[in-house]
Write a structure and sequence with these properties.
It is a single chain. The chain contains 14 helices and 15 strands. With 388 residues, it is an alpha/beta fold. The chain has a single domain, classed as TIM Barrel (Alpha-Beta Barrel), CATH 3.20.20.30. Helix 3 runs parallel beside helix 4. The protein is globular, with a radius of gyration of 21 Å.
């Protein structure tokens, strides 16, 4: 089996007092100097993963997150820096927030990094989920339909820019090129300069719902899917893999379950299951505090979401616990043998799966603890799958 093993670092920094007993997420403030440690943290991830045999370090684009949860504003730019300090490791975006960009500027940045790094950048696309980011930078988010329409048009423009020597586009949001004279003629087409050296561009996108429009868009354009969490038997990961496979079939491709997907879960290793779950508890709580108010836990009631910012009251609100998330395979906590067994079962249930990531960027996990797990996994778990 040719299995690529990756990790995802979302760009959060070390923070004091994680968990419900710590500060409410929206009240956290970090100094400029501490927020800037994200670049050193990312370099430590890259150097460690290069040394221990991982395939790709995935990073997340975020803006204005003074709380310290996401401090990387430009994944392609940071990837160039990290590539200078490594020789083999690849880098990618889970995800570039497309609706916060002009699509041609993002296409140019990717193409430039592809050339400069010799093809070591993977391209990920997302519609965004933080209104403070997307709406401030000029894209719609609160209007989901407008967000989807804009996103799809932007992706189509980037695909044209990369794969066609000269191109034009006339859509709802964009007219490319501008209707202006150039030198001796009217401008009718344009060229991205330079285009990527490695074509076709491989694109990855999260699968967060089973809506047919989004899945068919991915299948039509050859976009690969990313599924984070829900990796227990019969869980959300398998369900999402099935609807993605169905979309590929509608586009004329018959595939194995798991093919063209990256599937991941958040690990924490310790000498026992009990110790791992206990250690991960405040990190899980911090993750809930940071993401529940942004709508990332749609199953929660408004009262439960409010409770995440109310300290001790959170423990009586019926919120998901680390035990719940571990049971569903969003977290996998325990000994190396336990994590190895979980991954083995996942690969058996998704026979086409060839890419997994063993950190999903959980906001509350100290980057230093994530790296410790990455190194331990590489030592005691990864060799079995590398041999396979």
């Amino acid at each position: 089996m040719n299995l690529a093993i990756d990790a995802f670092y979302g760009g959060h920094v070390e923070m004091p007092n994680p968990g419900f007993r710590g500060p409410a997420a929206h009240t956290r403030r970090m100094s400029d100097a501490h927020l800037a440690t994200v670049y050193d943290e990312a370099l430590r991830f890259a150097e460690l993963m290069e040394r221990t045999g991982y395939d790709t370090l995935w990073l997340a684009e975020h803006h204005f997150q003074r709380e310290g949860y996401g401090c990387i504003g430009n994944v392609p730019l940071l990837s160039v820096h990290l590539a200078h300090h490594t020789k083999r490791l690849k880098f990618g975006a889970f995800f570039n927030t497309v609706t916060a960009w002009h699509p041609l500027r993002l296409a140019e940045d990717y193409a430039m990094v592809d050339v400069l790094t010799g093809g070591r950048l993977r391209f990920g696309i997302g519609r965004g989920y933080v209104a403070r980011e997307v709406e401030t930078l000029g894209g719609p988010l609160l209007d989901d339909s407008a967000n989807r329409d804009l996103f799809e048009e932007q992706v189509e423009i980037m695909l044209k820019a990369w794969h066609e020597p000269e191109f034009a586009h006339a859509g709802v949001a964009y007219r490319v090129p501008a209707d202006v004279p150039h030198m001796f003629d009217d401008l009718v087409d344009i060229t991205l300069v330079p285009r990527p050296a490695h074509l076709p561009v491989e694109i990855w996108q999260p699968i967060t719902s089973t809506k047919r429009r989004g899945l068919d868009f991915m299948a039509r354009h050859g976009v690969k899917g990313v599924i984070a969490g829900g990796t227990a038997p019969g869980g959300r990961a398998e369900q999402a893999a099935a609807v993605y496979r169905d979309a590929l079939a509608r586009a004329g491709r018959e595939t194995q379950l798991g093919e063209d997907l990256a599937v991941g879960f958040q690990i924490h290793l310790s000498d026992s299951r009990e110790a791992a779950l206990l250690e991960a508890t405040p990190w899980c709580e911090e993750h809930l505090k940071g993401l529940a108010p942004l709508g990332r836990y749609p199953q929660l009631s408004e009262a439960q979401i409010q409770a995440t910012a109310q300290g001790e009251a959170a423990y009586d609100a019926g919120l998901p616990t680390i035990h719940d998330l571990d049971a569903e395979g969003t977290w996998v906590c325990g000994t190396p043998d336990h994590v190895r067994d979980h991954l083995t079962g996942l690969l058996e249930r998704l026979p086409g799966l060839r890419r997994v990531f063993i950190q999903t960027g959980s906001l509350g996990v100290p980057p230093s603890a994530m790296r410790a797990d990455i190194e331990w996994f590489a030592q005691d778990v990864m060799p079995e799958f590398a041999a396979a």
